[in-house]
Design brief:
three-stranded mixed sheet; 2 domains; TIM Barrel; about 375 residues; binds SN-glycerol-3-phosphate; 17 strands; binds calcium ion
């Protein structure tokens, strides 16, 4: 479809030249450009750092992403007992740290209700930052190397921004930060709200405001609505698997459902993309909400990107990985084919565990 529209535009350019309308700049070979909301190249967001190569959410992982030239590094943030923000994918420490082999912390294992479910494990919110600093990161993905296990600390948000500040010194185009507030309703109920602390730190590092190289993201809506009242920093409404309702064709989005897990700081939960556009600048859907797996031999293309663009929302989709086992069969084990398809659809940004591959895919796409 898109190749067809490119051909159509090229023919139109040739026709304009031939008819002598004076639009001489529009030569047939003029690149048509990206089909993104603003015509800019899609962003490469280093998901948990370059987490395909280093244990996720470590300074080593973010540093490698910066070295690759990613546009943004993406820390997920949770709170410690003393209110510090640290980078972890979950409030639980079990999978991504060596907490299980620290006998001094064995009694901290507990059961808490998170997002309506009883969950047992070691919660960051039961540890001080000083205690967290005695732990080391480990590789949680069994398909990836464990060679770096035990080498890296759990970083604070401030340490990540220190790294970024140093990396950005002298750069014309700064690398940005894309923090996610993890389980905001859970943290609010614990008396450890993430949002004001996040804003305070961003301000300390001069990274707040509409033009800052920052996107704040959340799977919940109430905390983003709360934040919208306090900052103009760009925001992203993430979408989990059940967040979108489609029409009978399976392609047109007709409803939105975002869970807020007891957080009442928002006006109301959004029921449409237009509702989201009132407090967010982008949506962050799962890639299978754009290209759906219906069990057919190829993925079903939805109109989510066009619908989001129509109400002014950027679309940044997660998560791109290189391992062939994570790819849909139609890509034949080649991650570049997956990027190529999503770039053709006009995506504005991709979260990738392998930002070097995403950057290579973008370079190739640009040169087509
Ligand atoms: O933040 C969006 C992307 O990271 C998907 O979520 O679960 O990997 O933090 P998650
Ligand atoms: Ca995330």
């Amino acid at each position: 479809m898109l190749n067809e529209s490119r051909r159509t535009l090229a023919c139109l350019a040739a026709l304009l030249l031939w008819t002598g309308t004076g639009v001489t700049a529009m030569a047939a070979e003029t690149p048509i450009g990206w089909q993104t909301l603003k015509g800019a190249a899609p962003l490469v967001i280093a998901h948990r750092g370059a987490s395909g190569y280093r244990p996720e959410h470590t300074l080593a992982s973010y540093a490698l992403a910066i070295e690759f030239g990613a546009d943004f590094i993406e820390p997920d943030l949770v709170a410690t007992r003393d209110g510090h923000l640290i980078a972890r994918h979950e409030p639980l420490l079990d999978e991504t740290t060596d907490v299980g082999v620290h006998p001094e912390f064995a009694s901290r294992k507990t059961t808490r209700t998170m997002d309506g479910k009883a969950i047992s494990g070691f919660f960051a919110s039961d540890f001080t930052l000083q205690e967290i600093k005695t732990l080391r990161a480990v590789q949680p993905n069994p398909a990836r190397s464990k060679q770096y296990d035990g080498q890296f600390e759990i970083p604070t948000f401030e340490e990540i921004l220190e790294l970024l500040t140093k990396a950005n010194a002298g750069r014309n185009r700064p690398i940005g930060v894309y923090p996610e507030t993890k389980h905001p309703g859970f943290h609010l109920a614990l008396g450890l709200p993430l949002e004001d602390r996040l804003l305070t730190i961003l301000r300390e590092y001069h990274l707040e405001g509409r033009d800052a190289p920052v996107f704040i993201q959340s799977f919940e809506s109430a905390n983003l609505q709360y934040l919208r009242g306090k900052t103009t920093t760009r925001q992203v409404q993430l979408m989990d698997e059940g967040a979108l309702e489609y029409d009978a064709t399976g392609q047109q989005v007709i409803g939105v459902r975002i869970a807020d897990h007891g957080d009442r700081r928002g006006d109301k939960s959004p029921t449409s993309l237009a509702d989201i556009a009132r407090y967010a600048d982008a949506i962050g859907p799962w890639k299978r909400q754009i290209l759906r797996d219906t069990g057919a031999s190829s993925l079903l293309r939805t109109r989510l990107i066009e619908q989001a663009h129509a109400v002014g929302l950027l679309v940044h989709t997660y998560t791109f990985r290189n391992e062939p086992a994570t790819l849909a069969p139609q890509y034949q084990g080649d991650p570049l084919q997956e990027y190529r398809q999503i770039f053709d659809l006009g995506i504005d940004g991709v979260f990738s565990d392998f930002p070097d591959t995403a950057l290579e895919a973008r370079r190739r796409h640009r040169e087509r």
